[in-house]
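Hi everyone, sorry if this is the wrong subforum. Our group has a chain we'd like a structural model of before ordering constructs, and none of us has done structure prediction before. Sequence below.
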Amino acid sequence: MTRPFILLVVAKAPVPGLAKTRLCPPATPAQAAEIAAAALLDTLEAVCAVPGAEPVVAMTGDLGAAARPIEIGMALRHVTTIPQRGPDFGARLANAHADAAEVHAGLPVLQIGMDTPQVTPESLAAAAAPVLHGGHDSVLGPAADGGWWALGLAEPRHAQALADVPMSREDTGERTLRALTACGLRPRRAAQLSDVDTMADARSVAAACPGGRFARAVAAVGGRAVA
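Answer:
Right subforum, don't worry. Here is the predicted structure as tokens:
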């Protein structure tokens, strides 16, 4: 029997002009929002197919102004949605873990974002495995840019360590590792993935998941749409 766990996705509504602005140019704001929406939809599809997972999405932003609002709304019907809260991203991450644990008390958590649409049910299960089955108290999945893409915790309250970690920096991964270690944890390393910040990133990630919505949205930039 698969052990249940919280699979927490921290997400931002893909609103044109606010989502994935570093893709512009060559993408237009509308195309960047489409890419972000596709990334979220592909991520949710993978998340909802993970055995034992209790999907929770911590959302911020106006979904009514977002790209693909109907598709996203339908996808969110299959998960528990909670609002993000906190003055900065580190605090919002810590609060998301705490709020998800209120919904599903007593369960370990694996948290990801919406910038790694190449994830699969198998890769997510593998990232969670050290905490669920390996006796580890935590797991950290490094990102190629120096950040991280996944954080697993046997005890979600330890996510409070994130509140003081500067995010979106080249040393965020190392700082997060130090913060977790300072709490007495011994994080296991998960597989490294590339997340999506620039169009070069987007094209590289799209090549890793060529059959999804994300790859089609990326290919549409510059008129290179795929069927």
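For your construct planning: The chain has a mean pLDDT of 93. Residues 29-47 form the longest helix (19 residues).
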